[in-house]
């Protein structure tokens, strides 16, 4: 049985359409790429959690999140030895391309973050490394073409094989 976990992530896009991603290493699903974010604190809304998480993981305090949700999805993994089924809200934010602020190495090591990288649209669609969610290249291509979605795209439950195998 997996423990339900609520989480929020942020797709931070630079003016050229690149997205900032972290490379994670997880005991159950291995190495994969995901946007800044994580579990919600008690009483926190998904938007509040997204703002807090992006600040804690990047040091960026000036991003404007207007509440636009790109997508919703659920997936399984093990966090700190506990099997979870994580339900995520992925928000959109826009900002300048830049490096991480401050010294975040200790916090990143505790979260299994190996390093961060800006991914261009071409890099994102051509890469074969696992992405969370795996549909991210298509979702961001639609944003670049049509603008943010009027309602969040609901990806539903995505099994690990889909995540790892893209």
TrEMBL record:
A GO MF term: hydrolase activity
Do you know which SUPFAM superfamilies this protein is assigned to? Nudix
What cofactor does this protein call for?
Mg(2+)
Which superkingdom? Bacteria
InterPro entries with a match to the protein in the record: Nudix_hydrolase (IPR020476), NUDIX_hydrolase-like_dom_sf (IPR015797), NUDIX_hydrolase_CS (IPR020084), NUDIX_hydrolase_dom (IPR000086)
Q: Which PANTHER family match?
A: GDP-MANNOSE MANNOSYL HYDROLASE (PTHR43046:SF12)
The protein's name is NUDIX domain-containing protein
Report domain Nudix hydrolase positions.
Answer: 3-141
The similarity annotation says:
Belongs to the Nudix hydrolase family.
**Keywords from the UniProt entry:** Hydrolase, Magnesium
């Amino acid at each position: 049985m997996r423990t339900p976990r609520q989480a929020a992530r942020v797709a931070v896009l630079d003016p050229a359409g690149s997205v900032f991603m972290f490379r994670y290493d997880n005991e159950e699903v291995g190495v994969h790429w995901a946007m800044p974010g994580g579990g919600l604190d008690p009483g926190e809304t998904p938007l509040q959690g997204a703002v807090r998480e992006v600040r804690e993981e990047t040091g960026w305090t000036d991003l404007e999140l207007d509440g636009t949700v790109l997508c919703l999805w659920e997936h399984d993994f093990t966090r700190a030895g506990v099997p979870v089924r994580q339900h995520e809200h992925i928000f959109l934010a826009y900002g300048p391309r830049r490096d991480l602020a401050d010294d975040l190495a200790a916090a990143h090591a505790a979260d299994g973050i190996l390093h961060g990288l800006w991914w261009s649209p071409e890099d994102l669609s051509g890469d074969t490394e696992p992405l969370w969610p795996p549909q991210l290249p298509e979702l961001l291509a639609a944003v670049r073409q049509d603008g943010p979605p009027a309602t969040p795209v609901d990806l539903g439950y995505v099994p690990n094989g889909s995540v790892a195998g893209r």
